[in-house]
Amino acid sequence: MRRGGYRYGAGGYRGEPSGRNDGRSGGGPPRRGGGRGYHHPPQPHNDPSWGEDTRRGRSRDGAGPVRVASESVHSRDSPPHPVPKRRQISQPLPNICHNPETKDKLLPVHRPDRGGTLAARTCKLRVNHFPLTFRPDTILMHYNVDVKLTSPIRHGGSQKISKSDLSTIRETLFSSDTRLPLEKTVYDGEKNIISAVPLPEETFTVTISAGEDERSYSYMVTLTLVNKLEYRKLRQYLNRELMSVPRDILQGMDIVLKENPAKRTISLGHGFYPSYRPMFHQDFRNGVIALGGFHHSLKPTSQGLSLCLDYSVVSFRKPISVLDFLFERIDGFRLEEFGHFRHRVKTELIGLKVNVTHRRTKQKFTIVRLSNHNTRDITFTFVDREGGCDPYEVNIVDYFWDKYQKNIVHKDIPCLEFGRGVNVPMEFCILVEGQRYPKENLNKNASMALKNMSLPPPKVRQSAIQAMVESSDGPCGGGIIQNFGIQVNTTMTSVLGRIIEPPRLKVGGRHGEIMTVTLDPQKCHWNLVGKSVMKGKPIEHWGIIDFTSSESDFRFKLRCKEFIYKLKDKFRSLGIYMNDPLGVERSSMHQLSSHGSLSALLKKVNDWDRVQFILCVMSQKHVGYKTLKWIAETKVGVVTQCCLAGTVNTGKDQNFTNLALKINAKLGGSNVELENNRLPYFASDRHVMFIGADVNHPAAQDVNSLSIAAVVGTVNWPAANRYAARVGPQSHRKEQIMNFGTICLELVDCYRRLNKVKPEKIVIFRDGVSEGQFDMVLNEELRDVKSVFQKQNYFPTITLIVAQKRHQTRLFHEQASAGNVSPGTVVDTKVVHPFEFDFYLCSHYGSLGTSKPTHYHVLWDEHRFTSDELQKLIYDMCFTFVRCTKPVSLVPPVYYADLVAYRGRLYYEAKTELDPSSANEHKYFKLHEHLEDMMFFV
């Protein structure tokens, strides 16, 4: 094991002493030539030296599997033949696993060392990873569950069986047959049952009733064995005896850990929210509550398998009566004036699920509409199921009294209609528990309260996590997991964090000189008081569109002369020359709603004298913003900068500084650079390019809109702080970036146009992919890049890194009162992957809530980074983000790709509103040629 004094898959063979085998421990300079694996061509399949270990690992160089004979493995500074400067097309790709079972798939690279050692200081941390142990000899049985109705539902109703009914069917069946032990099985609520004992593979008949006066339904339940989940394979993976993660076993164990919270809490997405005596809740007093809960996952780590659990908050509708809900939700609501509120009531209720109270039933009903008539006027045809009498017309008021002895009190309001003509008075309906309330619909006070509850300080969050992992409602409660050979240590993992020293930065002085900024290591912020930007872009031609000219409220109307004076003064203080605007075009907010007039307005101002940018001042946020950006950036070809009059009218210096920094970056200036103009590791290299890629998907409830892919790339070296961007649509929720290689080549050509040479080294940062999609990134996207480059006889060395923010790992100081971890905190031991190259880096200062580190996972590395080199490189890059004077939480290529993907989403929405039939055409996303090389998106 790597952490136990032996290295495996890192330049040696299994059992080789763990001393570094990279030529660096003796103090010699690192070799930069070639790429990882280029000097180690893979051996043919019939090479007799390839033994069992060919299936277990790859060399440190990534050229192929680890060889059994140590003489055949060369150290990274002792190549068996001269290292070529550029890879020949005849050489195969490195890091290929030549195993017939994997069909020559590329595999993620292994960790190059035991972790980094670079540190200005260290700190003792707690991580919300709870060590999980299991009996390796355990075998779980995975069964497929097929449930079918024995007879169709009457009235042509839906044949789909709800999750709640599926769970009832399972519990009914397993409680009535001794061969099906309920305590030894777990169910995911859909198609999968995991059992600790063998179950009969048979078809069973189960009859259930939704409740009083409800028809009973019979179901055929068929159990079929799908797989045997052997824990020993997971142990082999953790011991590095298997290279492919046994996802089926992890998925089975995940179902086991979710069984208890699924029974005891509200299950929503991947989260669980206790509602009975909740530990964390808040009543917003408007029919909405917030519940604190948790989401968790299993992670293979260096210390073994871990349960990672984090705190989460969601807003729900209260499970109260429909009438009480309406009184809370609608200001001034009165039943006597129901007609006045009818539209608002429909908005609040339609689509919600309710239970009824006039009879015993667990059935849930969806509100389809309000009845057209008031309750006292509703009649229906009663049909006796027993055939005792002929059908007859009955008034709903009389029916409820005769059938249920229920007197309807509120007769002069509509009923709720559930479909197929079923009407139920509102007073007998209660909202079903666990119906999410969209946070974007919350009022200002509730929204702020939810935000505060969602962003607890580290001490509170750590306490909440600890309480939930120990709770009887949590994954470890109920005594279930022990039946499946699992135990969880409920103590957070202790790790030693390293804090990397921040870089020294360069900015301009008041008299044109270059100044060096030494940062405070606690917050790592800097300011530009008494300083200027590194390279200011002179502004000679610009214009203003004042959309606030018709505003009657002075607070939201631009004070134009005062604004221009202060903006010019700010640019002058930052060392940037700025002329007076060529003119101010008066307009109104209404013009933002008209595509034609807005397009004409932008073209008019742009034609004044080929303006460098247009400053657009608005009185408030407006949906026309997306149309403005789409027209300006794809049709007119002009940079725009939007701002709110209410913000700039305050005259705050920081607001004008933010405007100036963004405008200077958009026009090609440089706000700040690293000292010596060089990034770590590449300090002696000539041309290096950084690429960021991301995909923006539509909201979960949107089942039609396209996804938007964005790719950005640096166009200057060695500062590497200016980017070009490309954006376009692709299939709905498709994560793989189509034509990724072609897009990257287009950015390389952009680099060549500006620098007269192509970059020799490329580092790609990919955002938004999970561990399950790593194979797609490696074997689809990376292969596409290499294939396109090879066709152009272009062979740069490439490193591919995934940056993840959507994970659950949190870092806490061992002393809970110490607050958030410091910028530059790195963790790359114990809670990281057992053998692949990953680490957690918190690069920003967390002033609100609990800082979340970014998880960086290296999938491909032809530059042969050490842990220290890559961590320092990424951390230093986080200081080059152009919009602020502090390090950001995400490496800039990914941050910018996210901004560009969101900008593409705005283009799509603007075009969809104008012409839905053609919004998916790529031509509507093509940037104007004047903006293709500019940072218009910041």
What do these coordinates show?
This protein is α+β, with helices and mostly antiparallel strands. Among the domains are: 1-107, no CATH class; 322-432, paz domain (Beta Complex), CATH 2.170.260; 536-666, Rossmann fold (3-Layer(aba) Sandwich), CATH 3.40.50; 673-812 and 856-925, Ribonuclease H-like superfamily/Ribonuclease H (Nucleotidyltransferase, domain 5), CATH 3.30.420. It is 23% helix and 23% strand. A hairpin with a 6-residue loop joins strand 6 and strand 7 (216-230). The longest helix has 23 residues, at 892-914. Residues 1-94 have low confidence and may be disordered.
Task: Write a short abstract of this structure.
The chain is of the alpha+beta class and 938 residues long.
Low-confidence stretches: 1-94
The class by helix and strand makeup works out as: alpha+beta
Tell me what portion of residues adopts beta-strand conformation. Answer: 15-25%
Per DSSP, the total helix count is 17
Mean pLDDT: 87
CATH H level, superfamily name of one domain:
Ribonuclease H-like superfamily/Ribonuclease H
CATH topology of one domain: Nucleotidyltransferase, domain 5
Strand order of the largest sheet: 32-31-30-33-34-38-37-36-22-1-35
Largest sheet: 11 strands, mixed
CATH architecture call of one domain: 2-Layer Sandwich
Number of strands: 38
Q: Indicate the percent of residues in helices.
A: 10-25%
The end-to-end distance, rounded to whole angstroms, is 45 Å
Q: Name the overall outline.
A: globular
- Write down the Rg: 32 Å
Instruction: State the CATH class of one domain.
Output: Alpha Beta
Keywords: Repressor, Ribonucleoprotein, RNA-mediated gene silencing
GO molecular function, one term: RNA binding
Protein name: Protein argonaute 2-like
GO cellular component, one term: ribonucleoprotein complex
